Amino acid sequence: MFKFDFGIEDDNTEATQPETILQSEPFVELSLSQLIESLPPLISYSPLPIRLSSGRKNITLARRDLFDARFQLISEGRGDEPEIPGSTSALGFLDAPSDLVPGVYEGGLKTWECSLDLVDYLDGLEDSNAAYVSGKRILEVGCGTAIPSVYLLYRIFCGDSNAATHVHLQDYNASVLELITFPNIILAWYMSPSSAEYRASIADTEGPPTDPTVSGELPITPSLKSAFTASVAKHGISLAFSSGSWESLKTHLESRGGALYDIVLTSETIYRIEALPILIELLHRACADSDSLCLVAAKVLYFGVGGGFSEFLAALESKAMADRGCSGTAESVWERKVGVGRKIMRVSWV
């Protein structure tokens, strides 16, 4: 197993780069009510500082602690429950020395650098008060901790827009969506002005201060769940969550038809050459039209496995992709050259 040390670590363990899953696990949709009911009584969180290059003040998001997710699994007696029948348990993902269980787990429990790069780029867009995402349909492919989408939702929670906004978060593993992705959304809401009415209704001792720069614990009460649901509806936000392979998501989108997504985001997903065709097909299918904002954030080169932007661009512009009707071009819109090179590319479809 190759060691990359690229992860933004939660518990100071050594990270290995997650690897794209090529098996076609089925598309499974997780409802909002299902995820709300799966929340533990208490969520422990720590600050995730994100540097911004737009000239605005750097942002800090609250992110659920990995050790807290581990404790939830153990306390609920799910330590040995497999993610997929016959496979490793979700607790096994958390305790494994590697960030990858090939064909089973894709590394989504940890936060990777390029997801923070996406936040930096999105923050730099005009009207960073989220006017540019309100009323849009957004998909994050291979979301993991979903920091870019959490950031966009936080911006909406900080405003007063009620335009119908749809956010779809996809990860290979349902346990990632339950244990990390959704709790991070709850934390973003709580740290925003949208939770003010709820916080005013409870005693000071029942909730932590709304300061994401300080670690804390958030009690998950029935009243908090109700307040979150009401706030989401008030802002016109529709949340969708799905697990499964990219192939299964593409098939689902094809069967659904109709309007798709105005903004499609993905990060750290191009490091395996064999997976590039299905990823490109999925991105193409997900975009509603030629005006959709499709952003791919990744390292310029993934040492040891052969992937990177050169391979992605070659696949994107290849005859094979053209024959499948999803050929495209990509323009670099963000770049960091210090250390391991990283870029964000905007994909346009031919």
TrEMBL record:
* Chief place where the protein resides: cytoplasm
Which Gene Ontology terms cover its molecular function?
A: protein-L-histidine N-tele-methyltransferase activity
Q: Which UniProt keywords apply?
A: Cytoplasm, Methyltransferase, Nucleus, S-adenosyl-L-methionine, Transferase
- GO cellular component terms, A-Z: cytoplasm; nucleus
Q: Which InterPro entries match?
A: Methyltransf_16, SAM-dependent_MTases_sf
Q: Which GO terms describe its biological process?
A: methylation
Q: Which domain of life is it from?
A: Eukaryota
Protein's cellular compartments: Cytoplasm; Nucleus
What positions belong to coiled-coil segments?
none
EC identifiers of the protein:
2.1.1.85
Which family does the record claim for this protein?
A: Belongs to the methyltransferase superfamily. METTL18 family.
This protein is called protein-histidine N-methyltransferase
- Native species: Mycena maculata
